[in-house]
């Protein structure tokens, strides 16, 4: 389509240029033709007379004049048409056809050549270009006032078309070859990356999550390749988390289930010889059953929190009072391990915007972990302070023999003890649940170490705008999340 449009436009421009060229040629040639015509006006001319129409020239008769024009002038016109006009622009002679005698051909002065007039006329149903020069009618045998040279427009158009057609075909052939090469290059630049993406997607669908594509660039295809690689990395990471999660759940369930099977089997087959052994076995069965139930409940609650389907009744909560209450709850365990509990809450600390039950769960997890893993005889600190527009709570304690990784502390089933001993209780889901609860209340939970090597767990929550602030976040309510470690 582009070639056709370009060819059509080129044809129009070339045709107009050819028309103008022909008109210019006629304007120049009519001057010489006029001299020939004036030369044939004299039938006999003395040798000494040099100019046509000068003294001594005997004017030819009209018949002789036309014969002389047909014999000597017309052959010099290369197929053009010679026309003579009288003062009224009527045809008095036409070398092409006698039936045009009396036809009026209007001529107008040329804007490019002096003393030359131009015309566009129709003769015998055919369009002509024409150029004219004025002569003296008194000296012309036919009383003509204008000598006109005319050329058919169709001849000009066919000549231009003949010259242009070959060149257009050549240009079209070259353009077609170039276009096909460009189309091939562009199609390959598009199809090759898409083929690579399709193959990589098939590999990932087949389980090869490490597959990546090598598509680079700042264009749309390059951005698509980068997005695909990011998606593949996210899928691989999610699959790894899923595998680790299943492995951890299996590991955590193996120990209590083994205990349940062993001691229940001992109770059934009567291998326990006295009441004390039977009581101990029943106690272990009960405790391990509770542990499995607690793990299942924590996993369910963690899934609900991550899915955003747990309700949050956000209201203004006295953070200092909550911390004091939680410290009193863990004090018996702290006293048993000779731990000191230190609470520092400024009197002007504002209330926080939080769900009281969820905040109690988070603080209970933080203080319970601090008391559980701090070395005997050490001090656990709980402080509250303003941090910008939020209130920050920091629970710190010495790290102990097994220094935890602060970047992994909030992962599911993480324990700093590489033996993953469950003697201390809990299954390693409490901090993961606490982090999700803190995020659901608009806060943040993270950990680091201070300069002395103490582990610090930071909880930031937004300060309440009004003392009676209350709002409900998320959707359907669920039961309170139990304490976990």
Describe, in plain words, how this protein is organized in 3D.
The structure is a single chain. With 485 residues, the chain is an alpha+beta fold. It folds into 3 domains: 2-162, no CATH class; 220-303, Helix Hairpins (Orthogonal Bundle), CATH 1.10.287; 311-473, Heat Shock Protein 90 (2-Layer Sandwich). The protein has 8 helices and 16 strands. It has helices spanning 2-39, 62-73, 153-205, 220-269, 275-307, 319-336, 356-373, 430-440; strands spanning 42-44, 58-59, 81-85, 91-94, 108-109, 117-123, 126-134, 146-152, 312-317, 340-344, 352-354, 379-387, 390-398, 444-449, 454-462, 470-473. A 6-stranded antiparallel beta sheet has the order 4-3-8-7-6-5. The protein has a 5-stranded mixed beta sheet with strand order 10-12-13-15-14. A hairpin with a 2-residue loop joins strand 12 and strand 13. The longest helix is centred in the middle third of the chain and has 53 residues, at 153-205. It is rod-shaped, with a radius of gyration of 54 Å. The model is unreliable at 45-50, 420-424 and 470-485 (pLDDT under 50).
């Amino acid at each position: 389509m582009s070639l056709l449009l370009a060819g059509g436009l080129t044809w129009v421009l070339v045709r107009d240029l050819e028309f103008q060229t022909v008109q210019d040629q006629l304007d120049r040639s009519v001057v010489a033709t006029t001299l020939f015509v004036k030369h044939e006006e004299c039938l006999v001319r003395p040798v000494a007379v040099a100019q046509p129409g000068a003294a001594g020239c005997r004017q030819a008769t009209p018949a002789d004049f036309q014969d002389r024009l047909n014999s000597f002038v017309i052959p010099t016109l290369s197929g053009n048409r010679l026309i003579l006009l009288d003062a009224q622009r009527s045809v008095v002679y036409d070398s092409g056809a006698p039936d045009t005698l009396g036809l009026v051909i209007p001529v107008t002065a040329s804007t490019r050549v002096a003393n030359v007039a131009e015309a566009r006329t129709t003769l015998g149903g055919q369009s002509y270009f024409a150029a004219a020069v004025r002569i003296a009618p008194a000296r012309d045998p036919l009383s003509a006032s204008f000598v006109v040279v005319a050329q058919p427009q169709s001849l000009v158009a066919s000549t231009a078309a003949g010259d242009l057609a070959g060149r257009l075909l050549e240009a079209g052939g070259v353009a077609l070859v170039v276009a096909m090469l460009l189309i091939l290059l562009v199609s390959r630049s598009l199809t090759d990356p898409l083929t690579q993406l399709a193959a990589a997607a098939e590999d990932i669908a087949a389980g090869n999550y490490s597959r990546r594509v090598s598509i680079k660039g700042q264009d749309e295809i390059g951005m698509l390749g980068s997005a695909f690689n990011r998606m593949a990395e996210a899928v691989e990471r999610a699959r790894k988390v899923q595998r680790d999660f299943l492995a951890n759940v299996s590991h955590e369930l193996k120990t209590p289930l083994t205990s349940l099977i062993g001691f229940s089997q001992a109770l059934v087959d009567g291998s326990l010889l006295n009441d004390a052994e039977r009581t101990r076995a029943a106690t272990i069965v009960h405790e391990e059953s509770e542990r499995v139930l607690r793990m299942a409940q924590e996993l369910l609650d963690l899934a609900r929190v991550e899915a955003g389907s747990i309700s949050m009744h956000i209201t203004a909560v006295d953070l200092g009072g909550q911390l004091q209450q939680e410290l009193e709850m863990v004090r018996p365990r702290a006293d048993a391990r000779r731990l000191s509990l230190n609470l520092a809450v400024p009197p002007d600390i504002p209330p926080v915007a939080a769900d009281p039950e969820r905040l109690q769960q988070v603080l209970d997890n933080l203080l319970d972990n601090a008391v559980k893993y701090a070395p005997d005889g050490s001090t656990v600190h709980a402080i509250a302070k303003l941090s910008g527009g939020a209130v920050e709570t920091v629970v710190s304690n010495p790290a102990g023999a097994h220094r935890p990784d602060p970047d992994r502390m909030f992962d599911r089933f993480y324990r700093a003890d590489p033996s993953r001993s469950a003697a201390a209780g809990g299954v390693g889901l409490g901090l993961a649940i606490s982090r999700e609860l803190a995020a659901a209340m608009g806060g943040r939970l993270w950990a680091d170490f201070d300069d002395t090597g103490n582990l610090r767990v930071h909880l930031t929550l937004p300060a309440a705008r009004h003392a009676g602030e209350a709002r409900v976040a998320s959707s359907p309510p669920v039961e309170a999340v139990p304490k976990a470690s």
